[in-house]
């Protein structure tokens, strides 16, 4: 067992550096590992694929007949809502994955390496954004099969998907903070869904805000999920509303600007 | 005196009101092994976490390869390897991918990281398992992979935090061989353990740590001289006459005999167990002291503690790690 471990030349490791290039390289390596984890774990891969298909079909066929929406086409109304709801749920993976890495001691290993510390979080949120992108593409395909169309053409479609995945990315940074303060993956999962459920359902994702009771309407109107869903609906329908779009982008930028630095500091301090 | 690979001065760390470390001084010369021996909660892991740059001390300083762990953490990180109490490997990746991941995070380049991974897999007899996800590995294989992961960067200084806790005796001996091989190759190792036998086998010097302080330090031989080679443990029928028995047996003991107040057991460290045992029984018999239980065993961590502190090592504090610690100790006694 000892034969080849015995003769070990020293210190061939490159000198450490904190340059942007290193952050990018390390974040890419971490993201590679996170995605490999999904590929290597058939359960995760299946969940990533089946869940969005199920959501689209269930909502379209179960609620489709019952919910009256402006324009009367529930699939057209539903798809942007379900895009956003799914990426927000997908962003919970950031908390769970980080909590798991902390719990299993992997973060200790990362922190004992001369890598860029921020890369663990940047890589994690990046790989979760890629998972969300995959999910959104699967949903688009399923949506097309049941009559959904991007009426805004390719630029509108790309902008819509970018907006949706970008919002998921922003939520990932909130999620990262929860993952860093909880002690286990299970606790993280429990904690993250407490804000996520009201956030996604008290919004215009599945039903018009006008159908909600009076006291809830202002809350639902102000909900960033509503703002992003409405902006996406505009892009999908080919009639984007500039003010809503700007508001949605401001929400995304604002959430990242606030929650990313908090998470990065919290990661460095975490003992 | 060779230069110090690890040097700490007055290292202190508190978690709220709990003082985990209360001024720890360590000096580990290059290419030697220091065994940090102590029960759970003694501060061993805290010391390792500070030295591995995971934790900032409240006071004191620590140098690893001459670099300050607080001021130059990256310089320290490029010199060290860390193997924690739990195998820090990714269950879903293969063994090879785990090692490659560490190599890439050490900025070795993809090709070099792969070559190094294969090298280590071969060295740890994991080549065949290298393409399988780690979740299919046995406990011993995981620990080997974990140790391999801490060696990817060819560290000068290696921290092993209870590397064999929870392993079966055979895997434990296998890991000991690997560690012995690394030392022979010139690596400096700081090893924490709850097992005296492990420290005895691997460490050049042993520091006994309790309640955040080093309470004894020396070579295994020096500590043993304080302990005796064996311990005669007994319980009297009339527990009230314990002090009488202690006085009677003191001349036979290699170190001061002790009474464990909690259990009423007498511990008499002895050299040359065989002949002494007869003498012990003869003396007790002569004084009409009836013995309820009598046993002879190699000094355990408990005995070290009892000898050094006058109390047991209190291994029952934390449920999980401790159950394993006690199990291991029992095994060790059986083996001895």
Structure description:
The complex is a heterodimer of chains A (271) and B (336). By secondary structure, chain A is mainly alpha-helical. Chain A has one domain (22-269). Helices cover 74% and strands 0% of the residues of chain A. Chain A is built from ten helices and no strands. Chain A has helices spanning 20-40, 42-63, 74-103, 106-111, 118-145, 153-181, 185-201, 217-222, 224-237, 242-269. Chain A starts with 19 loop residues before the first helix and ends with a helix. The model of chain A is unreliable at 1-17 (pLDDT under 50). With 336 residues, chain B is an alpha/beta fold. Chain B folds into two domains: 4-223, 3-Layer(aba) Sandwich (Rossmann fold); 227-335, Alpha-Beta Plaits (2-Layer Sandwich), CATH 3.30.70. Chain B is 38% helix and 26% strand. Chain B contains twelve helices and 14 strands. In chain B, the strands form three sheets. Chain B has a six-stranded mixed sheet, with helices on both faces. In chain B, strands 2-1-4-5 form a four-stranded antiparallel sheet. A four-stranded antiparallel sheet of chain B has the order 12-13-11-14, sandwiched between helices. In chain B, helix 3 runs parallel beside helix 5 (139-150). The radius of gyration of chain B is 22 Å and the shape is elongated. The two termini of chain B are 35 Å apart. Mean pLDDT of chain B is 85; it is low at 314-336. Classes of the chains: A mainly alpha (271), B alpha/beta (336). At the A-B interface, helix 1 and helix 4 of A face helix 2, strand 6, helix 3, helix 4 and helix 6 of B.
């Amino acid at each position: 067992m000892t034969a080849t471990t015995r003769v070990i030349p020293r210190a061939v490791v490159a000198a450490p550096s904190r340059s942007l290039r290193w952050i990018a390289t390390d974040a890419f390596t971490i993201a590679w590992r996170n995605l490999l984890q999904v590929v290597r774990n058939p359960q995760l891969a299946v969940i990533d694929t089946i869940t969005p298909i199920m959501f689209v079909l269930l909502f379209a066929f179960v609620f489709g007949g019952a919910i009256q929406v402006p324009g009367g086409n529930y699939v057209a109304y539903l798809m942007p809502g379900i895009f956003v709801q799914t990426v927000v749920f997908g962003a919970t993976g950031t908390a769970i994955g980080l909590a798991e890495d902390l719990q299993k001691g992997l973060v200790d290993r990362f922190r004992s390496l001369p890598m860029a510390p921020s890369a663990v979080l940047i890589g994690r949120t990046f790989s979760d954004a890629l998972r969300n992108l995959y999910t959104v593409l699967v949903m688009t395909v399923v949506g097309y099969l049941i009559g959904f169309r991007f009426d805004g053409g390719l630029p509108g479609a790309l902008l819509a998907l970018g907006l949706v995945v970008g919002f998921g990315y922003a939520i990932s940074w909130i999620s990262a903070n929860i993952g860093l303060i909880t002690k286990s993956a299970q606790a993280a999962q429990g904690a993250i869904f407490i804000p996520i459920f009201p956030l996604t359902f008290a919004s215009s994702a599945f039903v018009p805000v006008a159908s909600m009771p009076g006291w809830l309407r202002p809350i639902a109107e102000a909900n960033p999920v509503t703002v992003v869903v409405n902006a996406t609906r505009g892009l999908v329908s080919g009639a984007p509303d500039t003010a809503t779009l700007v508001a949605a982008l401001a929400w995304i930028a604002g959430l990242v600007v606030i929650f990313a630095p908090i998470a990065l500091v919290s990661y460095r301090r975490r003992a | 005196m060779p230069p110090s690979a690890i040097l700490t001065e007055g290292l202190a760390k508190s978690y709220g009101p709990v003082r985990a470390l209360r001024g720890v001084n360590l000096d580990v010369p290059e290419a030697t092994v220091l065994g940090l021996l102590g029960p759970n909660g003694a501060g061993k892991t805290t010391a390792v976490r500070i030295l591995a740059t995971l934790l900032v001390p409240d006071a004191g300083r620590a140098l690893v390869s001459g670099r300050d762990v607080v001021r130059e953490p990256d310089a320290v990180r490029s010199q060290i390897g860390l193997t924690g109490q739990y195998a820090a490997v990714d269950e879903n990746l293969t063994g090879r991918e785990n090692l490659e991941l560490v190599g890439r995070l050490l900025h070795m380049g993809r090709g070099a990281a792969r070559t190094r991974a294969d090298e280590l897999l071969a060295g740890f007899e994991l080549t065949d398992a290298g393409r399988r996800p780690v979740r299919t590995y046995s406990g011993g294989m995981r620990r080997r992979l974990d140790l391999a992961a801490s060696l990817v960067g060819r560290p000068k200084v290696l921290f092993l935090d209870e590397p064999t806790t929870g392993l079966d005796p055979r895997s434990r001996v296998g890991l000991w061989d690997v560690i012995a091989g690394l030392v022979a190759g010139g690596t400096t190792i700081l090893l924490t353990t709850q097992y005296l036998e492990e420290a005895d086998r691997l460490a050049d010097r042993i520091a006994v740590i309790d309640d955040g302080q080093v309470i004894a330090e020396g070579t295994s031989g020096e500590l043993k001289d304080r302990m005796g080679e064996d311990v005669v443990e007994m319980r009297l029928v009339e527990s009230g006459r314990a002090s009488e028995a202690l006085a009677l047996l003191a001349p036979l003991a290699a170190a001061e005999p002790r009474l464990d107040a909690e259990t009423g057991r007498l511990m008499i460290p002895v050299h040359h167990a065989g002949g002494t045992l007869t003498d012990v029984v003869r003396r007790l018999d002569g004084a009409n002291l009836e013995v309820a239980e009598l046993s002879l065993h190699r000094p355990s961590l408990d005995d070290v503690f009892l000898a050094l502190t006058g109390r047991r090592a209190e291994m029952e504090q934390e449920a999980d790690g401790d159950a394993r610690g006690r199990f291991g100790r029992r095994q060790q006694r059986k083996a001895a």
